[in-house]
What does this fold into?
Amino acid sequence: MTPLQLTEPAALETLRQVIDPELGCNIVDLGLIYSIAINGPRVAVTMTLTTPGCPMHESIRWGVQEALLNLDGVEEVEVELVWDPPWHPSMMTDFGRSATGVGIS
It folds into this structure.
């Protein structure tokens, strides 16, 4: 994949490989990805975690970087962790809710 072919949907699909080890679900379906900006070979991701004290934050950040760096044409990945807006289970996809049992009555 060349930088011209890299799209936000393709990056999101790649990030589905990154699993939150505590919840056992990928970070996209958990609703943790707030934005992806692609500028040639550089990808910037703004994301959050389910809790500010998440002990796996470095592992998840590393997983995002590695997943995107494995795409052809990506040379640099910046991951910014933000806490505003705070994550809430309503940000999850239907698949995420089903996979984790969160928000299912």
